[in-house]
Amino acid sequence: MTDLPIAERWFRSERVTDAITLLVEDHLDVFFESNVWHVRGRDRDLVVDTGNGIGDLRGELAPLAEGRPIVAVATHDHFDHIGGMHAFEERWCHAADADGLRAPEGLALLRRDYRPGLGV
User: Fold this and answer.
1) pLDDT per residue over 34-64, tens digit each?
2) CA-to-CA distance for 47 and 112, rounded, in angstroms?
3) Which residues pair with 22 in a beta bridge?
4) Cα 75 to the center of its chain, rounded Å
5) Does this model's pTM top 0.85?
């Protein structure tokens, strides 16, 4: 047994408008944080960036999507934006970032293990 706190939910969400919700991986060092945006559509929804891929993003989005398919779009190929892309059938990115999605850079758990200039 551990004395460490365990979070009930990985993501914190904030409704921005009726159609837009911001999700944040609330239990990470700020270095690893990124914004995950859910945009509700008529026939399908959009998730812009998918975070680190640690929590269950699809499960978190399910109540927001209300059964509509979700298309995942990556703004760029940094680990904290593409980590959850694997969970979606339809994935989009700019052609310049496609190789980064096909063969992502490995995830390290310490800041010092990342190349200089890659974050805070």
Assistant:
1) 899 999 999 999 999 999 998 999 999 999 9
2) 30
3) 14, 37
4) 11
5) no
- In which element (H, E) is residue 24 found? strand 20-25
- Model confidence at 76, pLDDT cuts 50, 70, 90, reads very high
- Which residue, among 12, 14, 16, has the nearest Cα to 24 in the 3D structure? 12
Among 115, 114, 58, residue whose Cα is nearest residue 90: 58
Q: Report domain extents, the chain.
A: 11-102
Q: Which of 119, 10, 14, 4 is nearest to 64 (CA)?
A: 14
CATH topology of domain 11-102: Metallo-beta-lactamase; Chain A (3.60.15)
Measured distance CA(78)–CA(34) in Å, rounded: 10
Residue 62 tokens, joined: 């399910």
- Pairing state between β 35-39 and 90-92: unpaired
